[in-house]
Amino acid sequence: MLRLKYVLMIVGVTLVGMFCMSFGSMQSHAAQNNVYDLSEWQGKFTDDQVKKLKDEVPFVILRVQFGSAYYDKTFDNNVALMKKYNVPYGVYSFSQYTDPNDAADEAKALYNRAPDAKFYVNDYEQQTVKTGGTNESTLAWINALRPLVGNRKILFYSYQSFMLNHAAEAISAYDGYWLAAYQTNEPQREHVLWQYTDHYYSPALGQYVDSSILTVKNSGWFIGNTTPKSNAKYEKVNGIFTVRSGATDNFYNHVVGDNKYASKLKVNNEVANYKGKTISYNMKATVNNETYYRTYFDGHLLGWINVKALGPHITYSRINMTKQIKAKNYYNFYNHVVDSHFANTHKLVNGSKYAGKRVHITGRAIKDGWHSYYYKCYYEGKFIGWIYQRAF
């Protein structure tokens, strides 16, 4: 991961020898608590390597990406073997974000590529932010990831001087600091994991790797020991919605933010395939001040989706009649029914412009659960928009 270079300005071979002896002793002492962070630089692992690795470390930390654009070449192979041989693993993203929005996208990409990880790490050690601020971007990273991972840990990784210069404010939002410092004595700076070398020999892998040591937290703190409880409230409800044409939230196999299913969360269906379509629901869930519905299309399960992606179902009918606008009218004309699924709904004209005038009506619409209508109006043959019935 990090490649820190320390130059020892020490005069005399004796002191250098003492340093090496101390460092070697520390590595030996750390053998039972070593944690490796691994990437494509270590290559594709074999079944035999990972079987041995299970008895060598409590867990590993795998690189998933270099920014959101670059996907680690060996991750798919290596993570499959970790799962096969029950080696717990966390994941990290080598951050390359340039602003808060980019940081949020990188965090989401990390989750989507590794939804089953035990914990997640923002490896921010290279200054790439151009606008929006480094602390703001680092905070946006965790804020985007937190609703997806539930109670799993989210760590920040870097060396101390970089953290102080670029993330000193944002780091408090993280569950812990993974501190990089290649030295013999454990740093005084508060941390949950200490990366102390990039040259630790792994017998299982047959190569030298980056290694960190567990001294402050035990392995259970990182990877968890129990199945989390649900923090969502569920209730049976029935009805129909129309998927908004501007929706960005996808359908998930579980409720986003429910701790119980955080490690199993994945996209069930892409919302882009159902925009403007009528769907049904039979269950509602609330969690972290958000509302989700379990939805179906033509009897087939779509999954759970945030209510923000859904608009009211509206029944349209054709009519042919005239009505007079009130002399004092406070309702305006819109290109679509207000709060319908159309993304570009906007006001066409102030209703007061047609106060006291008679308009031709060719259609009406009613939202599910409502008892009042919207009307499609024309004046002198020109479409002037949809307006609420109290305008008449």
Q: Could you name the CATH homologous superfamily of the largest domain? A: Glycosidases
The rounded distance between the terminal residues' Cα atoms is 69 Å
Shape: elongated
Element-by-element helix/strand order: HEHEEHEHEHEHEEEHEEEEEEEEEEEEE
Beta-strand portion reads: 25-35%
Signal peptide: 1-30
Family: Belongs to the glycosyl hydrolase 25 family.
InterPro entries: GH, Glyco_hydro_25, GW_dom, GW_dom_sf
Keywords: Signal
Structure in words:
Residues 1-30 form the signal peptide. Keywords: Signal. Belongs to the glycosyl hydrolase 25 family. This protein is of the alpha/beta class and 392 residues long. It has three domains: 13-223, TIM Barrel; 233-312, Roll (SH3 type barrels); 314-391, SH3 type barrels (Roll), CATH 2.30.30. 20% of the residues lie in helices and 35% in strands. The chain is built from seven helices and 22 strands. The protein has helices spanning 13-30, 47-53, 75-84, 100-113, 134-149, 160-166, 219-223; strands spanning 34-38, 60-66, 70-71, 89-94, 119-123, 153-159, 176-180, 193-202, 207-213, 233-243, 251-252, 267-269, 278-287, 290-297, 300-306, 310-312, 314-324, 333-334, 347-349, 358-367, 374-379, 382-388. The chain has an eight-stranded mixed beta barrel, surrounded by four helices. A five-stranded antiparallel beta sheet has the order 15-14-13-10-16, with no helix packed on it. A four-stranded antiparallel beta sheet has the order 17-20-21-22, with no helix packed on it. Helix 6 links the parallel strand 6 (153-159) and strand 7 (176-180). Helix 4 (100-113) runs parallel beside helix 5. The protein starts with 12 loop residues before the first helix and ends with a strand. The model is unreliable at 3-31 (pLDDT under 50).
